[in-house]
Amino acid sequence: MEKEDWMREALLEAEKAGAIGEVPIGAIVVQAGKIIGRGHNLREATQDATAHAEMIAIREACEATGSWRLENAQLYVTLEPCPMCSGAMILSRVTEVYFGASDPKGGTAGTLMNLLTDDRFNHVAAVEGGILAAECGQILSNFFRELRERKKAARKKNTSNSLENKVE
Q1: Does residue 54 carry a catalytic annotation?
Q2: Per-residue pLDDT in tens (0 to 9) along the chain, 168 residues
Q3: Which UniProt keyword terms apply here (predicted)?
Q4: Is 82 annotated as a binding residue?
């Protein structure tokens, strides 16, 4: 399979997150041409700050392999990893990281900094961004646009209810 095919699998995970009201980010871990870990954001559902797509995919991959070392594994994620997730990739020895959309507010795979290729750590990973970047960015843009529209509609409804109560 090509990088784009693997990223489409990560996008399927992102769609699962969006369907339950989570920020639509998805990740997969691939080793020897097979998906050994999948994850999508579950922060809101679990109220766990560490329930990022990458963290869940890494945990699942470690369980599948019976090892915390994910050497010769590739991780695909729809949004550039944050510092926590980049740290987990370093610690789990992921070999290659591919991401879709860049994250100008928290990306540590090249945007704000690149933790994954910093040779001061005991492990470095190859990094490539921009895989299906438009699709990965669009799913996030759609989610946040719909969220803003829902909030605006709720404010409008609350305002009209307040006015009706004053009239009575």
Answers
A1: yes
A2: 899 999 999 999 999 999 999 999 999 999 999 999 999 999 999 999 999 999 999 999 999 999 999 999 999 999 999 999 999 999 999 999 999 999 999 999 999 999 999 999 999 999 999 999 999 999 999 999 998 888 888 887 776 666 566 655
A3: Hydrolase, Metal-binding, tRNA processing, Zinc
A4: yes
**How far, in Å, CA of 25 to CA of 36, rounded?**
18
Residue 158 has a CB neighbour count (10 Å cut-off) of 10
The closest alpha carbon to 28, from 77, 65, 73, 62, belongs to: 77
Tell me which fold the domain 3-137 belongs to.
Answer: Cytidine Deaminase; domain 2 (3.40.140)
- Is 62 annotated among the ligand-binding residues? no
136 appears as a binding residue in the annotation: no
Q: Which of 13, 22, 54, 60 is catalytic?
A: 54
